Amino acid sequence: METLPLVVPAIWRRSLEAYRSLGLSAWITGAALCSLMVLALFPWPSRYRRYARAASAAAMAWVVVLSLSGAWRLSWLCDDAFISFRYARNLVDGHGLVFNIGERVEGYTNFLWTILMAAGVAARVHPGQLAIVLGLASFGGALALSWRVAMALSTRRSPPTVSIAAVLLGGSYTFASYATSGLETMLGTTLVLLSLERALRHRPLAAGLAGLAAVLTRPDHAIFYVGLAAAMALERSRRRELVRFLAPFGLIYVPYFLARWAWYGELLPNTFHAKSGAESYLGQGIVYLIACALGSGLFGLIPLAAAGIAHLRRHLLTRFVLLSVPIYLFYVARIGGDFMLGRLLVPVLPLFAVLAEAGARRLAAFRRAWLAVVGVVTATAFVLPVRLIPASEKMWNIADERTFYPVKSFSPLYVDSPFWAWADDLIATYGTGPDTPRIATGCVGIVGYRTMAPMLDIFGLTDRQVARQPLASRGRPGHEKRAAPSLLLDRHVTIADVDVWPAEYLPLFQLPSGRIPVRLVRWEPRFAHKARSANPSSIPDLPSYLLQYHAPAGDPDRFACDLWFFEDFYFSQAPGERLPFFDRLVNQGDVDAFVAPFYRVAMGDSPPGWVVAGRLALDDDSHAAWIATGSAFRAWPVLQTPANQDAVGHASGAFLDSYTDAEGDRAVGAIQSPPFELRGDVVTVRVAGGNDRARLAAMLVVDGHIIAAATGCKSEILSRRVWDVRPWRGMQARLVVVDDSDNGWGHIIVNDVVQWERAR
Amino acid sequence: MRMPSLPESPRARWMGMTFALCAAVLALHASSYLPFFADDAFISLRYADRLLHGQGLTWTDGDRVEGYSNLLWIVGCTALGAVHVDLVLAARVLGIATALAAMTALARYVPRDLPAPRAALVFAAGAFAWASSGPVAVWSIGGLEQPLVAALLLWGLVQVDAVASETRSWHALLRAGIPLGMLAWTRPDGALFGILIAGAIGLLQWKEGAPPRSVARLVASIAAFPLAFAIVQLLFRLAYYGAWVPNPALVKLSFTFERMSEGWTYVASSLSAHINIVLLAASATFPFLHDRQARKRIVVLFLLLAGWLGYVVVVGGDIFPARRHFVPAISLMCLLVIEGMVWAARRSLPWRAVAGAMAVITLLAGMLRQTGDRALHRALEERWEWLGEPVGHLLARHFGPAHALLATDTAGALPYFSRLPAIDLLGLNDRVIAHHRPADFGRGPLGHELGDGFYVLSRRPDLIIFGLPTGAERALYRSGVQMQADPQFFSQYALVTFEANGDRTVRARVWVRREGRTGVQTTEGLLRIPGYLLATAPNVVAREDGEGRLGAVVTPLGSGLARARELSAGHWVVRADFSGPTPRIAVACSDRELASGPPDTEFSVWGDCMGGVTVKVSSVGAALDHIREIRLERLSD
Lengths: 760, 637
What we know:
The complex is a heterodimer. By secondary structure, chain A is of the alpha+beta class. In chain A, strands 11, 13, 14, 16, 17 and 19 form a 6-stranded antiparallel β-sheet that branches. A 5-stranded mixed β-sheet of chain A has the order 6-5-7-9-8. In chain A, strands 10, 12, 15, 18 and 20 form a 5-stranded antiparallel β-sheet that branches. In chain A, helix 17 packs antiparallel against helix 18 (369-379). The mean pLDDT of chain A is 90. The longest helix of chain B is centred in the middle third of the chain and has 30 residues, at 212-241. In chain B, strands 6, 7, 8, 9, 11, 14 and 16 form a 7-stranded antiparallel β-sheet that branches. Chain A binds chain B through residues 3-6, 8-9, 12, 282-283, 368, 371, 622-631, 634, 636, 660, 662-663, 667, 669-672, 675, 699, 701, 703-706, 734, 736, and chain B through 28, 32, 349, 353, 368, 370-372, 376-377, 380, 499, 501, 503-505, 541, 543, 545-547, 553, 555, 579-581, 619-626.
């Protein structure tokens, strides 16, 4: 991403634009809420004191009802929520807490929420509907609790009629957005608030239970749990309550932690690795916090909250906030925030709101009413429905995710997302359950839950191998690691929404689809027949195409790439078809009969009647006899690609790679191996990378003459070349690899140079 | 200057927390500019490195030249280097530590009679202004002495009030005098601060009616330290370097209209870029008008600020990124910010609220505003100094044993990493060049005007690198331009392309002397041509092979080409030290081909080949060759 000094002014400008573009209704609503909060500053008239309690209850009921109705209109269910739903469903179906059956990967960070969803599934309630209802209930609970906390903080001189904190939270677009979402955000927030409220009222056991429930709902809420414990420890009168506050941790959390450790075999959830939690992403985190503070209007609350802290500086609430909120915000900044605007700030919004209310009331009570009014007017920024990031757009790696997944119908549940429609298509074609094609996508939630097909999460949230890949470069949090095309092949993925093969073969792997480009990763006969029986035009007719195939005239590189594609895309799934196909090519004269045995077997297999006569050592530690020039091959033969390059498929040991960490595709250069004697009749070599024989080539050179050459196929999946070297047998040869291309795909990879001779 | 105090208890906690917070802001802010490191910082580190290796406080072998203007900084880096801290890290540690020391001086400046939270908020305003300032952040890790200057200046100012008070003592004088004296060792112009402070305090005392004798004694006691330190350094300079002024002064100082115009632009743009701190500092107007005690301190600060900025105008500003010379000005303005905030903190709540809000808004707005400052962007973008690391290491490995003499425009990274004896083509570290000012001196780019090509050629450098560490074919500055104007230059030097491997592969174009330590070695009946001299042709580079041997890589895209002087008559054989397939070697005298074939081809020279011999090495077909040496051996007459 761009550097912080460039992004911050852009956010600033965008927020000014967002405020300027607010409609009249937004300003009227803001003015109304502001007036209500200003009125709420003043005490109930003493002559009507007997009606105060009823009026207060009625007013709060109205605030809650209106807020719930606003939150209901914003209902949405994000894709990640369906990941938890799938875990819940697998649990109920007896497969344990897993995403893919048999793969124990902790791809969720909301244990308690997932268990609640599982309870809903067991009771035959759709977890999406349950999540919406639970989220709204938590939202209402948060408003009520903020009122309770405000009551606990109020002075006798100014008991609140209407809770300003509740009005602020109920009117906040950011806070109300996460009333639904299908995620645990609002439940976790409410539990933190409940824990605080119980602690304020000297109910340590209940506070501890609520705090622990918050930790089980989201592990990072441990910061609040520990913060509250520390705040209690600082108060002499509460120290004895600490034992009861912390008791649930030992009794509940420790056994839970040991059980999940035993089940998953990992101390940390997989999402921690997928999101590179151990690496600091402070720049993006600061951008996230600034965007959220401006987008949610949180900055408007800060003056009153500061006044609240100043007035209540020895209060448990202030100690709790000062101990936990800075650490929590630093944690959020360090991990780079989130890709959902505002989500990670939701747990602290009620704390700011109750502090703001406390500050306003104290100012009003101590003859600073005008300052309190100014503060409330400033705080109105919090209830203005500012859309910092426009609907369905991504800015600074952040999005208003609600706009991507709105709920159009509650019963039957329908989410307006292209992934919902894709899932419908998949169900119609292949049915549901584990005996369906494995699907690879970055949005594994909706498709994964609805089809219950085996899945590969492109971004690695639910996949251990992808999650542990080295981080290439920083980008959208949680979307930075990507499964390489070769991994999709290794994991037997059949369908994906990413490209695995070069665009030249698009007609052979493209599937008809709606808004999502759907690709075939492999042509699996059993699924292909199923698809064709459901709809003949749903999948390309590859067998018929192969029956009519001829080698492209005068283009050996294209022919080599065609054979590579057919092998990995089709013959690896239908090995019986390989032999007749190559027999036909030999008969047509497209393939030399002498080397044909190498094509009749899979790439890693030895052809019958042939044995290895020698292998060029690419993994030799001493590179003394190698000659290189340019920056492309500085690293000599390597065992793995740089972090910003896709993993190489079908690699056998070390390989030469002209893609470098520092320059990527721009690196150019050449490398030459030490001389080796040609002891065999055939040399096979695996090649990948760009397709440009003039500038990207692996060459076998004898006496300065190029006797064979190959280039890549615009893929990091190695393809095999077979060279007939009989005329040069017994002579000294060198492998020369040249990269003179600095364009996209301007690199070449060479691996497994093997000499073959006939078995005696 | 120090304000009244009250017993402190919670104050230390509050100030400590505020300090920790602002220190974190500074550390975070500074780290965002990594790995910026000014090339001139490497000059200082070369002095430190040579000092550590027992070669004295020198930049190169031979004539001792004072090419630095930060003695104390070099001593500090050397001290850390002596305990095996990498010198680049040492400079950065010193930078951050002294920037934080400056911050502690700001804390010390806050009056002790202010209640704890207010004192902390007042300190926060000054410390945050310091920590959030781009120049402070950049130069905390940029490798030069600016944070140390600021720290000593602030500590001197904090202590000097006790000297001016009626209860002054020797202890007070030492506490104020030593930082001000050390300032004179940190920068030659550092003594200016001490003299300005003494003058300003003396002026105030005189205005208040103090007896002239008392005023003179006060001024003398304050000014004595910087003057004494400056005199000690002058004596050292005369004894050790034999010079009255440091060499950089000769290279940079010129009192012309153009310089002042540049200096004015520099100061004006710096003030504009820091308008937030300027505005906050302007809040000191209130105590200036209403508080008699504060007025004296503010007058001193203002005179210092005006004096320093005036000096910067006169010397023509600076060429480095991130407004280096503005760091002392920022430190003074932070004190003025504190003065304004202290005054507000003693007023009623509305005053305090307004002042606090103004400070927060102004500082945050200033942070946003400085994101558009081009001078700071340069510090984010300028990384060419680090290209000197792999190139320097390559030169050190292969030309260090021969003590090759390097002439270079970039006197920092390349000489530092190569450790070769060197000539600074721009004269900062060369007495001869510094003393040969052209007639139009003072009208060109600051510090890049001097040069003497004839002098440099007379020193017969073995390696010449024009421009950045990656080199250039054509010279940019006076020494190089004059050298290339001499027709002998092109016959004596060959442009060789080296490829150096470090974190990344860097190509450097270096003019290499054809004869001598690094060139063709001629003895009776034997001509040895180093392989890298073949890398004069396009598409041929000199680089190390897998065993670290230097040679030219000859490919199908380019043949190696080298020239040598005369070849006497006789029967010769051409031999080669190479790896790769057998190359073809062609030997020609003028246009007459003498031999062509694989190594060990014999040939005869009829009559002396006085026009020079050309050796061309080609790879066969598609192969690559690594040629480390070509030898022409005479077999018989």
